[in-house]
Specification:
Largest interface: A-B, 73 and 74 residues
Helix content of chain A: over 70%
Number of helices of chain A: 12
Largest sheet of chain A: 2 strands, antiparallel
Number of strands of chain B: 8
Structural class of chain A: mainly alpha
Strand content of chain B: 5-15%
Number of domains of chain A: 1
Low-confidence stretches of chain A: 1-6
Shape of chain B: globular
Number of helices of chain B: 15
Strand content of chain A: under 5%
Low-confidence stretches of chain B: none
Oligomer: heterodimer
Largest sheet of chain B: 2 strands, antiparallel
Structural class of chain B: mainly alpha
Helix content of chain B: over 70%
Radius of gyration of chain A: 21 Å
Radius of gyration of chain B: 24 Å
Strand order of the largest sheet of chain A: 1-2
Shape of chain A: globular
Order of helices and strands of chain A: HHHHHHHHHHHEEH
């Protein structure tokens, strides 16, 4: 074997890292996406407190490791593309603040809601879980859509858009799309992980919410490909968008005929491919400018080849391991939950 | 600047926010690291002896650990986002160097931690016994690794190494990851932080045991918990001391100003003394009264009795020549007092445990009831001492670095996001203060409740694979 093949520097390192950043964000939205969906489903599927506890416990052992993906995605972005990270995070200051507050509220609510058996107490934390699930899904959709659409930047790559500039029809549609996709994703997850009445209700919810979700997704992806400011890879982005649409159709069909595992897998592919479409609509840009200056690409936003090479090896060694033991976790907690698993008293 | 503008000064608001959220995050870090170790030791003891009391302790401290861990995760996200949100110029400047340890931390440590904690908490009876034991040890190892990478990133800010300055792009660029990871500052700061974390977990364990022993309940399980905690606290304090000494030497080498500011030493001095207490003007420039230990500052700084310790005035003049006009002195009253409180709180905590070991030794004379009650009470109320020591230690090391964000390379005032307004930061600071304040109260009550409920009632045969969930939300 030619040893030179082992040297990553012969490839285009910023491109490799663009793919890796996309990979970790895809991982985050696919995994935490169904957590968000489960949270949104609480008022739609839970007839009583026991139902809601069954739903929360389907994600009990995994929600925090799913959330870890956003920390890793952020850190990888920081290391590989410091300029992108700095412009993105300072440019979306208030939306990110809301996401942080929502994630905090949601995370502690899982922990707190079962500590006291008082209707007012549980209702408060249920509300926080619902808000804490809808807000991040919507705002991440809004943020990514705005990035793809392009933002006014100054010469120092700082975003100069005001909060109102970020709320435009295209970006709002992006937010709605991601929210609805997460809802369906969560519903098929509940159908896969529970048994009894709630399982049937979850399947009906997935079918019911699936239609507007599919419509929103198709409209949003079509709009993305036809943006005036589109600066990415038209053909690959189109392929990914078609893939996302087909996966969504497959998910809804599988859900309709009761193939829950397949429906979940297809929904994961839908969310993943939708995010891939957005990344392909950027490449090789990472933060397109609408003001004629300060735009960021994988070249002027990236770290040095040395940093990217070192990090490449770390990622190459560790990532398969991470995927391996996370799959094992899902295997350990594979069985379905029912109302019988929930003890009657307060915990 | 008019007062309103001063109130909404993005720089000072962003600094307050970073300080507040970081100290708050660090409320949860030591207990996570230390409790993981305590739970791992207890579970290993159960594994080897099959004695159910160790299992009970594992479950009790595991529960406290879980309540604490969720807060650590959610407040940790804030930490990482904040660099980009509030300190975008800093992120652009150091990202090439600073991002690497953060990303490695996420990939190689935090992922492990978050996954195996879930497996451990929810996996009782679901995973083979030995594999389950391996899970908690993985959590402990991953959480210490995590601390290592974060401290390596912080050490770069104290003592930048392994980089080159790229004039054209105006940023620091990584030349050796190995140098960044073997920075003398992190080599000392890492054991210092870990031992301090173990001290806090130990005092929490002591307090829980004391609370139950005082009421004469769970004596069988709480005696060994008390002993383990007392020994762990005393031994960890020795580790804190030795590593703290190493950290002082590294600090004198990299940031002599910080050591001078720790003593408020204005003039360069041979055979410098160390003051335990001083009355004088707030900036320490003039002194009315002080209690001093001769030679101690020289000993700490140089490991010789008459070594030269550089004073603030000389260093200030030297930095002006080196970096241009400006004030290179940190806030002396903050560094002076935080340094003393750090050492003092830690030492008092260890001393209490040392006395406790003597009073509870085998064949010890039974204390009169009132004195025994007093001892339990002191054990309970002394629990926060190591945590407070850690917090003021962080205040010392971060405030002592000012006016620099990266020592000698970038000033804090140049690091703040230029496009984030004072109003934005005021909103986020208010929001964090409010939500963190509420959560602190709830969190404290929950931990207190779990601790007071005590260990669960268990049969000797608990390993049976039942269909019950180990933990139910």
């Amino acid at each position: 074997m030619d040893l030179a093949l082992l040297n990553p520097a012969q490839f285009d390192l910023p491109t490799i890292w663009f793919v890796l950043v996309a990979f970790f964000f895809v991982g985050y939205f696919v995994l935490d996406g169904f957590d968000f969906g489960v949270g949104m489903s609480l008022p739609l599927l839970g007839r009583d407190d026991t139902d809601r506890r069954v739903m929360i416990n389907t994600i009990g052992p995994v929600w925090d490791l799913n959330e870890t993906w956003v920390i890793v995605a952020g850190a990888v972005l920081f290391a590989a593309f410091p300029e992108w990270y700095a412009s993105l995070f300072s440019g979306f200051y208030l939306p990110l603040l809301l996401i942080l507050l929502a994630l905090i509220a949601r995370g502690v609510s899982f922990e707190y809601r079962h500590q006291r058996k008082h209707p007012q107490w549980t209702r408060t934390f249920d509300r926080m879980i619902i808000i804490g699930s809808v807000l991040p899904a919507f705002l991440w959709g809004l943020i990514f859509a705005n990035v793809v659409r392009g933002l006014p930047l100054d010469a120092g790559h700082n975003v100069t858009a005001s909060l109102l500039d970020l709320i435009n029809p295209y970006a709002v549609l992006g937010g709605i799309t991601l929210t609805l996709l997460c809802l369906v994703h969560g519903a098929v997850f509940i159908a896969l992980k529970t048994d009894g009445e709630i399982r049937g209700r979850a399947r009906r919810l997935a079918g019911f919410a699936g239609v507007p979700a599919a419509v929103a997704a198709v409209a949003f992806l079509a709009w993305t490909l036809n943006l005036e400011t589109f600066s990415g890879q038209p053909l690959p982005a189109l392929m990914a968008a078609i893939g996302a649409t087909l996966a969504m159709v497959a998910a809804l069909l599988a859900n309709a005929v009761g193939r829950e595992g397949l429906a979940f897998g297809a929904m994961a592919a839908t969310v993943g491919l939708a995010v891939v479409t957005l990344f392909l609509s950027l490449f090789p840009h990472v933060l397109p400018s609408t003001s004629g200056e300060g735009g960021l690409t994988i070249v002027n936003a990236s770290s040095t080849d040395y940093t990217l090479t070192v990090m490449f090896w770390v990622a190459l060694v560790v990532t398969p391991l991470v995927i391996g033991y996370q799959i094992w976790t899902y295997w350990v907690f594979r069985r379905r939950l029912t109302r019988d698993h929930i003890p009657a008293g307060a915990h | 600047m008019c007062p309103v503008e001063e109130l909404f000064d993005p720089l000072s608001l962003a600094r307050w926010q970073f300080g507040l959220t970081t100290l708050y995050h660090f409320l949860f870090v030591p207990l996570t690291i230390g409790m993981a170790l305590m739970a791992a030791i207890m579970q290993t003891a159960w594994h080897r002896t099959d004695d159910v009391k160790y299992l009970k302790l594992t479950k009790l401290f595991g529960k406290i650990f879980l309540i604490n861990f969720a807060m650590g995760v959610v407040t940790g996200i804030v930490q990482e986002f904040q660099f980009g949100m509030n300190w975008s110029e800093y992120s652009r400047f150091v990202g090439d160097v600073f991002g690497a340890p953060l990303a490695i931390e996420g990939l190689a440590a935090f992922f492990f931690e978050a996954t195996f904690i879930g497996l451990w908490i929810f996996g009782w009876g679901r995973i083979p016994r030995l594999a389950h034991l391996a899970c908690i040890w993985t959590v402990f190892i991953a959480s210490t690794l995590s601390a290592y990478f974060i401290l390596a990133a912080n050490a770069f800010m104290q003592n930048p190494v392994g980089y080159t300055f790229n004039m054209e792009r105006g940023r620091a660029e990584l030349t050796s990851l190995w140098e960044v990871l073997s920075n003398p500052v992190v080599l000392a700061a890492f054991p210092h932080t870990i031992f301090a974390a173990i001290m806090f977990a130990a005092t929490v364990m002591i307090a829980v045991a004391a609370w139950h022993l005082r009421r004469g309940q769970h004596t069988e399980t709480m005696r060994p918990a008390l002993k383990t905690g007392l020994w762990a606290n005393v031994l960890a304090f020795l580790g804190v001391g030795v590593s703290g000494d190493q950290l002082s030497l590294a600090m004198v080498d990299a940031q002599p100003m910080k050591m001078a500011a720790a003593e408020g030493l204005y003039e360069t001095t041979n055979a410098a003394s160390f003051s335990i207490f001083t009355l004088g003007t707030p900036d320490g420039a003039s002194e009315l009264f002080s209690i001093r230990i001769p030679y101690l500052l020289s000993l700490l700084s140089t490991h010789t009795l008459d070594g030269e310790v550089e004073g603030i005035n000389d260093l200030q003049a030297q930095y002006v020549t080196q970096f241009g006009p400006g004030d290179y002195t940190p806030l002396i009253w903050v560094t002076y007092w935080s340094f003393r409180w750090m050492i003092g709180l830690g030492a008092v905590s260890a001393l209490i445990s040392l006395v406790g070991l003597w009073l509870t030794r085998k064949n010890a004379r039974q204390l009169p009831a009132r004195q025994e009650q007093l001892m339990w009470r002191i054990f309970i109320w002394a629990a926060p001492l190591p945590l407070l020591a850690s917090l003021v230690g962080w205040i010392f090391t971060e405030m002592g670095r000012q006016p620099w964000i990266v020592f000698g390379l970038m000033k804090t005032e140049a690091a703040v996001s230029p496009n984030v307004s004072g109003l934005d930061v005021a909103i986020s600071l208010a929001a964090f203060t409010l939500i963190y304040g509420i959560l602190a109260v709830v969190e404290f009550k929950l931990i207190l409740k779990a601790a007071q409920e005590g260990p669960p009632e268990l049969d000797d045969d608990v390993d049976a694979d039942s269909d019950d969930l180990a933990v139910v939300y």
